[in-house]
Amino acid sequence: MFGPVSWVHEHPVFNYAQTNVRFGWMVSEPLEYKYLGRGNLELVFELTNSVIFGGAGNYLRGFTFLGRYNLFLSDPRWTLYFQVGAGVILNDAYKDLSQSEIGQALEFTPQGSVGIRRFIGRNWTLDGEVMFHHISNGGLSEGRNGGVNAVGGLLGVTYFFDRLWH
């Protein structure tokens, strides 16, 4: 993830590499929606461990809850998805008092992503995702809550334990 992405204020560099493990649960069967196309809803729980490689601190660790809409394309090997969510992280960047973006050990992480997955077997996919990720303490830390807006991409693999749809 690369930050800052800001159109209002100038912020110092804050770049980090995420490693995520996700657990998803399909909460609906595939249906045809008037405006969304054929797809289904999924809830995702994510554990994250990020290494900061540009900017203050060394790590970001936490969890996120995501809501995802899987859009099934005419070629069943491909699926697009859109997701939004929020979580919390613990970090050590707040200890660097020369920066004003991260003000405390516990920060919130609202985010949104667009991804695509390619089925390479009955239960396996290769995944690519573009993400907007925000880090902020919501004003809980007086004087230090400039926040971080970052964009980046994720590559991964998914295993479906019980693939009944598509």
Distinctive features:
mainly beta; 9-stranded antiparallel sheet; about 0% helix
What would your notes on this structure say?
The model has no long low-confidence stretch (mean pLDDT 91). The two termini are 31 Å apart. A hairpin with a 4-residue loop joins strand 7 (111-119) and strand 8. The protein is built from no helices and nine strands. The relative contact order is 0.21. Strands 1, 2, 3, 4, 5, 6, 7, 8 and 9 form a nine-stranded antiparallel beta sheet that branches. It has one domain (15-159): Porin (Beta Barrel), CATH 2.40.160.20. It is elongated, with a radius of gyration of 18 Å. The protein is mainly beta.
List the helices and strands and how they pair.
Blueprint: E1 15-26, E2 31-33, E3 37-54, E4 59-72, E5 78-91, E6 106-108, E7 111-119, E8 124-135, E9 148-159
Antiparallel strand pairs: 1-3, 2-3, 3-4, 4-5, 5-6, 5-7, 7-8, 8-9
